[in-house]
Amino acid sequence: MPSETLWEIAKAEEEKRSQGSEGDRVEIGEKSVFFIGSKSGGKTTIILRCLDRDEPAKPTLALEYTYGRRAKGHNTPKDIAHIWELGGGTSLLDLISIPITSDTLRTFSIVLVLDLSKPNDLWPTMENLLQATKRHVDKVIMKVAKTNSKAASEMRQKMWSSIQKDHPDRELIDPFPIPLVIIGSKYDIFQDFDPEKRKVICKTLRFVAHYFGASLMFTSKSEALLLKIRGVINQLAFGIDKSKSICVDQNKPLFITAGLDSLCQIGSPPVSDNDIGKLQAHSPMELWKKVYEKLFPPKSISTLKAIQDPARDPQYAESEVDEMRVQKDQ
């Protein structure tokens, strides 16, 4: 009798492990978490901390992938978390479509990291990234609906899972199509801002997060804050129980789990009654945007847009390679 090949042995081992009684069977879970947000906003630092990797953060070039694993218990297969990160702020929106597919969408989450130390860039960065992501996700759900209407319907229902059925704002919000967490980074710089400016930023981000059915939290290099963020990312990546803690005090780092805030608690946009009448807005989101940009006017598009071609980015300069490239282009 010929000896078994290595492949046959491995296959037999895997079958043996997956068989047995139904109660003993353990499925390997796979989830995906996609980090998008401000350029140099601290996305890589958060990812490294969540994965317990003690290495310096390097600038992200275009779209990067890594993964983490976590065991459910002793002698059980480890769950896998696929971690994606989009570099370049809002300059590489086309790459958003690569990790988000009909195969991954059911277990996909978005983490939007916004640099609190640059309030003038905050709204355009948030708006461009969320709009591009939502557009693509909606397109994927429509594609799924053509072949599996039940699955598409479940995806649409799932977006309401973080909002209680008796929540007073249920008719006034529009949850993001997949789980969303908004993280305000560099809180250590932000906490020294003028109190009125902090108030506007906090209230605005609370409104946006609540409107999209998202969680909102602030972080910095503080170990205590990073640990809280790590818990939230673990919940997205491995299904760990969601934290129910809440902090809405604008003099402290915000921490609000999806569904725990309300429009009543957030209040109206921070602007005088006289001014609010002059602002022509067709929706609550547009009103908050106009109030926010009145205090923090966005920089021009040209200054916000990063270098489109990474090959021409000075931080990746290689004199010999660049000289060859010049010769080739000529």
TrEMBL record:
Keywords assigned by UniProt, alphabetized: Cell projection, Cilium, Cilium biogenesis/degradation, Cytoplasm, Cytoskeleton, Developmental protein, Dynein, Microtubule, Motor protein
Q: Where in the cell is it found?
A: Cytoplasm, Cytoskeleton, Cilium axoneme; Cytoplasm, Cytoskeleton, Cilium basal body; Cytoplasm, Cytoskeleton, Microtubule organizing center, Centrosome
Q: Where is this region: Disordered?
A: 307-330
Q: Name one GO biological process term.
A: intraciliary retrograde transport
GO MF entries: dynein heavy chain binding
Pfam families with a match to the protein in the record: DLIC
The organism's superkingdom is given as: Eukaryota
InterPro entries from the UniProt entry:
DYNC2LI1, Dynein_light_int_chain, P-loop_NTPase
Gene Ontology, cellular component aspect: axoneme; centrosome; ciliary basal body; cytoplasmic dynein complex; microtubule
Similarity remark: Belongs to the dynein light intermediate chain family.
In its UniProt entry, what is this protein called?
A: Cytoplasmic dynein 2 light intermediate chain 1
**From what organism does this protein derive?**
Nannospalax galili
